[in-house]
Amino acid sequence: MTPDARPAAVLFDMDGTLVDSEKLWTIAMDDFAAANGGALADATRERMVGSNMPRSMRMLLGDLGLPAEETDVVVAGKWVATRVTELFGEGLEWRPGAREALRAVRAAGLPVALVTSTIRSITELALDTLGHDTFDVTVCGDEVAGRNKPLPDPYLKAAALLGVAPADCLAVEDSPTGVAAAEAAGCAVLAVPCEVPLEPGPHRALRDSLTEVDFTDLGRFFPLEAV
Ligand SMILES: [Mg+2]
C-alpha cells in the first residue's frame, strides 16, 4: 500500500473500543465472584479484557479457586452471559469519538467490520446502540471455532468476508489481547486504550482517544512507521 492510499476496510473491536462496556463485564464477573463467596482480583480481570468467554471463565474460576472443568466453564459462562445481557439491556454508552468515527468511515465509502470476542446474542444487544446496519460484516466470539483473539482468526475472517487483504486493513482496538490479534493478522492497528494501558509498537498507532483521530484521513496510517 502506498503512503497516501486509504485502507481497504476498517475493522472495529466492540467492547472498550466502540462502547464503554468493559465495566459492565467487570460488574458481571464481580457479581459471579460474590455469588460464589469470593472476589475477582484486579490483575486477573485486566488479563481477561479482550478475551472470549471460555478463556475468561477459566481465569475467573481459577482466580476464585473453583473447579474449571469444561462443564464448570459452560455453567459460569451462562451465568455471566445472563448478567451481562441484563446490563447491556439497560443501555450502552459510546466511547468518546466512536459514533463520529463510524459515521466518517462510512461516509468515506469504506467497508466496515465489527470484530468482537463477545458472543452473537450479546453483540446483537450492543447493535441496538451501534446500529444493525452500521457494519458490512460482523464476526463474534462464538463464530471462529474457538480460535479467538489473541489469535488472528477473527480478523482474518472479517477481512475474508469483506474480500480484502488483512494487510490493507486498519483495525481499531483497545486491549492488549485485541491488538495482538489484529497485528498477528497483519493489520495496521489504531490502538486506543480503555481499561488497560497499551504499549507503543511498530505496527500500531497509539492514541488516547478516538476524538484525536481524523477518520477522513486514514491514509496516514499506512505505512504505520510514518505516524
Ligand atoms: Mg475491546
TrEMBL record:
Keywords: Hydrolase. PANTHER family: 2-DEOXYGLUCOSE-6-PHOSPHATE PHOSPHATASE 2, PSEUDOURIDINE-5'-PHOSPHATASE. One of its GO terms (molecular function) is hydrolase activity. Gene3D superfamilies: HAD superfamily/HAD-like, Putative phosphatase, domain 2. The keyword Signal does not apply. InterPro entries: HAD-like_sf (IPR036412), HAD-SF_hydro_IA (IPR006439), HAD_sf (IPR023214), PGP-like_dom2 (IPR023198). This is HAD family hydrolase.
